[in-house]
Design goal:
By secondary structure, this protein is mainly alpha-helical. The protein has one domain. Helix 1 runs antiparallel to helix 2. The chain is elongated, with a radius of gyration of 18 Å. The N terminus is likely disordered.
Amino acid sequence: MSTLTTRVVSPVFAPTGRTADFRLCRHRSISPQAGHALEILGHAIEYLSDEYINEGGLFSARDPRIEAIQMLIARNREIYFDCPEMPTLGERLRAWFSRN
C-alpha cells in the first residue's frame, strides 16, 4: 500500500512554550491508516472542544471533558510523530552525491 506524503509543517514548541525555529520542522510520510486516524481524532477534538465552549464550560484541569480532549490531543500527537520524517532537500542531495 502506498504512503501519503503530507505537506503539513508543525511548529516545534520549545520548553518555554515559544515556537522554535521552523527549520527544525520536518515533513512526514503519513500512511493512509495514520491519516485516517488523524482525521478522525481531529474531528473528535474539534467536536468536543466546540461543544464544551458552546456549553459555557469553565476551563479547569480537573474537568473530565478537558481531560478527554487532552487525551485525544496526546494520541493525535503520538500518531503524527510516529510517522517517519521525510529527508530534507539537502539530505537528499548529499545522499545522491555520496552515491555518485
